[in-house]
Write a structure and sequence with these properties.
Length: about 425
């Protein structure tokens, strides 16, 4: 169902194992049916799954992108644009999607360049090494990460710090072209004017090309397309329009890829402001929500149209209790069934208020009375708060569950008094 629909939301009563089911399905898809236990995934496979829980203060900056404080090399404070968790996840999926379209020859070329760059930067003594531009300007490489090469230019009194784009340097090396002057880069990148970064890109390009190294033959095979599953727990507890922003359009199953490209809110701050954001075909989204949560009613209707809703009933997830052993499992199922029947019999409640099997997994460390006193009773008291006769209703629940005799006997005492 997930592979067909792209986006699904599991809805139902609390404790029905919706989050656990989401991880099971993600694991099953990623392992191609080999297993459904998330802990069995390899570290590499776990990169294909991401889990986040929405809450009222969760926002666009957490999810898509936003400005975050950073300490500059000189100790001063500044801000930088950082990707949110969903953007980082989509970037991983997009890379796999793009790589799956490439030939073995292209992959071999990219792997060779990646090795070449890694050799160059790993062998540098960053503080001592000073590359030089075509005009003789010396600069230092302060740090290198996945996206940037941060350099210092002591002789530049106007801008003595600069951040170079790793991807631009990689593209130059992969192209197989020769670059002898800055204007060659302007043409290559399709720009109207040169940037200050191009001067230093050219210097590093020539330096890397000139390095002597033993070339190893990289074993290459075509990259298979992989599924990537993003799980949003309690999706309805966040302010959806604030979190997703313009991504409403991009997550639509009918507008994946180029058809659903959008400009994000901070596009003008990107290194390439013209680059659009899109979600590739190999991304799948699973949300979970509790039907009794007050925020369900305010769940954005535009978002509802983009998800397939699947109800998870309390009676459907009893298999979770297999870990308890037969004796305790059978007793737990008996009590769940009796308690949920009592809950559904209250006019103001319905099956959305039933108790799921996940609560009973706590029986691994507590007994049935402790489960009632510390977990189930407080939950049910919230359900019946404000309902006429709430004490009698709670006594009825306790009796159905089979709580300790002192509590369960209250309903019998009240019946005798009424008689």
């Amino acid at each position: 169902m997930l592979l067909e629909s792209k986006n699904v939301i599991f809805r139902g009563a609390p404790g029905t194992g919706k989050s656990y089911l989401a991880k099971q399905i993600a694991t099953d898809i990623i392992s191609k049916g080999a297993f459904d236990d998330y802990t069995q995934l390899t570290a590499e496979q776990k990169q294909q799954v991401e889990f986040v829980q929405f809450h009222p203060s969760y926002d666009y900056a957490d999810f898509v992108e936003g400005l975050r404080p950073r300490v500059n090399a000189d100790g001063s404070m500044g801000f930088e644009l950082q990707d949110g968790i969903f953007t980082r996840f989509v970037n991983r999926a997009q890379k796999n999607y793009d790589d799956a379209q490439k030939s073995a020859a292209t992959i071999a070329k990219e792997a060779s360049v990646q090795e070449q760059m890694a050799d160059y930067f790993s062998n540098l003594e960053l503080e001592d090494y000073t590359p030089t531009t075509a005009r003789g300007t010396k600069f230092y490489i302060e740090s290198v990460d996945e996206r940037h090469i941060n350099i210092a230019i002591p002789d530049n009194k106007v801008a003595n710090k600069l951040s170079l784009n790793v991807d631009e340097l990689r593209q130059m090396l992969e192209s197989g072209q020769k670059f002898s002057q800055v204007k060659d880069l302007v043409v290559f990148f399709g720009k109207r004017n040169a940037t200050q970064q191009y001067t230093y890109d050219l210097a590093l390009f020539n330096d890397i090309k000139a390095q002597r190294r033993i070339r190893t033959k990289v074993a290459v095979q075509r990259v298979p397309m992989k599924p990537y599953v993003f799980i949003i727990d309690e999706i309805n507890r966040g302010e959806i329009s604030k979190i997703f922003g313009e991504l409403f359009f991009a997550i639509d199953p009918g507008y994946r890829g180029i058809a659903g490209e959008v400009s994000t809110q901070y596009a003008n701050m990107h290194e390439n402001p013209e680059k659009k954001f899109s979600i590739p075909e190999n991304v799948y989204i699973i949300g979970t929500m509790n039907d009794i949560d007050r925020s369900v009613d305010s769940f954005d209707f535009a978002m509802r149209r983009r998800f397939r809703f699947i109800e998870i009933k309390a009676s459907e997830r009893l298999d979770m209790l297999n870990v308890l052993g037969d004796s305790k499992k059978n007793e737990a199922i008996r009590r769940i069934s009796a308690l949920n029947a009592a809950i559904s019999s209250v006019d103001e409640l319905n099956e959305n208020y039933q108790v799921g099997a996940a609560y009973f997994l706590k029986l691994a460390t507590v007994d049935f009375d402790q489960l009632w006193n510390d977990y189930l009773q407080p939950l049910l008291q919230e359900y019946v708060r404000g309902i006429y006769g709430e004490d009698e209703i709670m006594a009825k629940f306790a009796h159905a569950y089979g709580a300790n005799a002192a509590v369960a006997g209250e309903i019998d005492d009240e019946s005798e008094n009424q008689g």
